[in-house]
Amino acid sequence: MLHNFLFDICGLKGAFTLEKRDQQCIDHIRRMVVRDKIVLILVSGGADTTVCAALLHKALLQGDDSLRVQIIHINNSFLSKDESEQIVTTLQQLGLNHRTVASHFFLKPAI
């Protein structure tokens, strides 16, 4: 019944692969981002922003130009214990050039 709905009624082809989707995203980024521009992305450490940062990095890295994608992780002080360190480790494992900024630098103490 599910097969009938997906393929016969909805017309899906069943040709989806993660590799194809990855390449589609990379191609889209390359079409949308103007050449020689720098892209800034704030990474929370969640799956969405981390995957987006990795795709931007793959799509826009050209030669030794590792500065084209600027990835900033903001430790907002609302993360779980050691979560910011885990995010940094993940970004490093993905080979992403990033900076971490602690939010307490932006907050003024209460008077």
What does this entry look like structurally?
The chain has helices at about 1-10, 20-30, 45-60, 85-95, and strands spanning about 40-45, 70-75, 100. It has a single domain, classed as 3-Layer(aba) Sandwich (Rossmann fold), CATH 3.40.50. Helix 2 (about 20-30) crosses helix 3 (about 45-60). Helix 3 links the parallel strand 1 and strand 2. The radius of gyration is 19 Å and the shape is flat. Strands 1-2-3 form a three-stranded parallel beta sheet, with helices on one face. The chain is built from four helices and three strands, in the order ααβαβαβ. It has about 110 residues and is α/β, with parallel strands linked by helices. The relative contact order is 0.14.
The chain-level structural class is alpha/beta
* Count of strand segments: 3
Q: Helix content range of the residues, please?
A: 40-55%
Largest sheet: 3 strands, parallel
> Order of strands across the biggest sheet?
1-2-3
- Unreliable parts: none
SS field, number of helical segments: 4
Brief digest:
By secondary structure, the protein is α/β, with parallel strands linked by helices. It has helices spanning 2-9, 18-32, 47-60, 83-93, and strands at residues 39-43, 69-75, 98-102.
Descriptors:
Rossmann fold, 4 helices, three-stranded parallel beta sheet, flat, single chain, alpha/beta, 111 residues
Which helices and strands, and how do they pair?
Blueprint: H1 2-9, H2 18-32, E1 39-43, H3 47-60, E2 69-75, H4 83-93, E3 98-102
Parallel strand pairs: 1-2, 2-3
InterPro entries: GMPS_ATP_PPase_dom, Rossmann-like_a/b/a_fold
Protein name: GMPS ATP-PPase domain-containing protein
Keywords: ATP-binding, GMP biosynthesis, Ligase, Nucleotide-binding, Purine biosynthesis
